[in-house]
Amino acid sequence: MTQDEMKKAAGWAALKYVEKGSIVGVGTGSTVNHFIDALGSIKDDLKGAVSSSIASTEKLQALGIKIYDCNEIEQLDIYVDGADEINPERSMIKGGGAALTREKIVAAIANKFICIVDDTKAVEVLGQFPLPVEVIPMARAYVTRELTKLGGSPIYREGVVTDNGNIILDVHNLHINDPKALESQINAITGVVTNGLFAHRGADVVITGTAQGAKIEE
Ligand code: 5RP
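^ thats the input. predicted complex w/ ribulose-5-phosphate below
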């Protein structure tokens, strides 16, 4: 199986968590794109979706799935999204696609976070994948200095503007032993919108696409 076939297996397996007549929280990325295709196959049974990015919104709308504004919804049963890394405690690094802030917002109103990944994303310790941090543009240099003090090597993601009009710093060389503490510490830096650690709100269910098919851990 190719990596994309494993992503597809995970994306389609998440369909079993979608209740008839529900509004689903939808993440962003190539694995989620398979989940969106799967949602398209049941779109008449779906009330709609809350989306975490312009890219996912456009794909959902192209399939005829109604988009709800996050502010209209108090609570979602499920939020389905990918990850760049996930550890055994189900903390994640996300934001490879620069959608981390909206992803965190939609995840915050969901009862269950269903993480869909291929088996290359499982790690013992987070940090091999550079940690994305969304930053207000005028704070870029200041936040870069503060992240360096924390032991990281932040690199400005050239040419990328988030859906919220901000920039991304990718922090290399972090060995993240306490994801919750680091998530809080980075979010406390003035000018940081949020960072890609999803530790305070980790995954509840992990669906991993493997060469043998989708493996579900509840
Ligand atoms: C986007 C994300 C994605 O979920 C993450 O980058 C994984 O992407 P993919 O499914 O394409 O491997 O956090 O901001």
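The mean pLDDT is 97.
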